[in-house]
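Ticket #4471: structure output looks truncated?

Reporter: J.K.
Steps to reproduce: submitted the chain below (155 residues) through the standard prediction queue, then opened the result file.
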Amino acid sequence: QPGFAKLKHFKREAKKKLEEVKEAENVIAQRGALEKELKRIQEEIADYEKRLPVGKEIPKLLEELSARADDARIKFFSFQPAESNNPLVVSSALYTELPIRMSLKSGYHELGKFINYLENSERFMRVTDLSITADSSQARLHEVHMTISTYISQR
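Returned output as attached by the reporter:
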């Protein structure tokens, strides 16, 4: 009887080890797919990091906005980072919303082109306030006051 009990015990152990080997083989078989998924996630993270400038990139962002406005034939009077009075402004350990207030003179089509640039920019940006006032001295140009918000990485 003692030999039979040992044999039964070894059979259970062998079955257990065989299951562990099969599990390890499954993990190995999935390794390629897991590595591919990891690479995709790393690329996605890099894309989001590119879309979230760090604080030191704000002057570059303002220059980029000015250049895009010039491309759309918009005349800037002023633009500057602004304090937000919006209670919904997002701030976290990873990023902070940065409103940028702008005053400019533009036609409707030029303004549309500029807003299209903002909405399709590599960076996360959105128009949060827009006011257009007719200019009685120039029928095709309007005074525009707008606020866009972008997000700044805290890292």
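Triage note (M.O.): checked the attachment and the full token line is present. The longest helix spans residues 2-51.
Status: closed, working as intended.
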